[in-house]
Every structure is written in structure tokens, then in C-alpha cells.
Amino acid sequence: MEIDRAPERLRTLPSWLLAQSSNLVRRFVSAELAALDVGRGHYALLACLDEFGPLSQADLGAHAGLDRGDVVRHVDGLAAAGLIARSVDPTDRRRNIITLTDLGRRRLRELDTALARAQDDALARLTPDERQQLVTLLRRLLDPPGPASVIAKDSVSTESPNPSRS
User: Fold this and answer.
1) Beta bridge partners of 92
2) DSSP category for residue 43
3) Which of the 8 DSSP states describes residue 49?
4) How far apart, in whole angstroms, are the C-alpha atoms of residue 43 and residue 60?
5) Does domain 9-122 have CATH number 3.40.50.720?
6) What are the extents of the domains in the chain?
7) Edge to edge, what strands does the sheet with 55-56 contain?
8) The model's pTM
């Protein structure tokens, strides 16, 4: 997208700029992962298992921010490729526990390298300090709201702006 072609009112909206930036980065990431025959969801699940250890499918999806149906589809593909192992939870036979295999760990390292390339390409216009600042700001946007936002939300008046309508 050529940002100069967009109306000025769009070019000043953080929400629009974030969406356009997301589309740009997604293209770089998708291209790198597609070259390795993997999708973003696969990477997210492998990364979660590497960091958090064995998880139920439900917990795995919650950590990765993926829908249950997508988790099942991705888990099936990852298990078929030998990147994860599925076993019945001994404390609740209705649940599956998903574990990262050694092959999955090796594959995750390859994917980490590919994603680092995608990040470098997508963010080439930013200095390392600007990239870190971007990550800091985005994490602040996405972090769970704290007491300050609760106070700000509570201070918004719910009364009718026109007293004659009350």
C-alpha cells in the first residue's frame, strides 16, 4: 500500500496505521513460513509448548490465542509431522495433553530463524532502538488493563447529557 495515496484523515488514525502495518508484516511472515510449509498458527503452538511445557489442547489454544477448531486442525497437522505428541491426560481421560517432540524443537529453531528474517525485512526502515520502542508500545497496548484504565472507565459519566431527558 502506498500510504501517500490514502486520505489524510486515514493517515492520522493509529487504528488504520496499525492495520496497514499488520498487513505489511503479515505478508513478510506468511511468505517466510510458506516457504517452510508452515502457518502462523503452527508456529504459535510450537512456541507455546516450548515455553510452557505440555498443555491440554484447550490451554494450548488459550495461550496461543487460537480458536478451538483451529487448534484441533493445527494439532492434527503437527502430530502427523511428528513435531508434537498427543497423549491422554492420566488425571482426566477426556483431555489430550500435547507435548513438543525433539523434532518439534529443532523445527521451531528453524522457524525462529525464518521469522527473524521476516521481522528484519518488514521492519528494515526502523533502527534497532525504534524496533524495541515499537515492541514496547505494542505490548503496552495489548497488556491487560490495570487500575488506571479501570479508574478512567469508571469516571466516564453514564448520565444523560441532557438533564431534561432524565
Assistant:
1) 89
2) H
3) H
4) 12
5) no
6) 9-122, 127-154
7) 55-56, 92-100, 84-89
8) 0.79
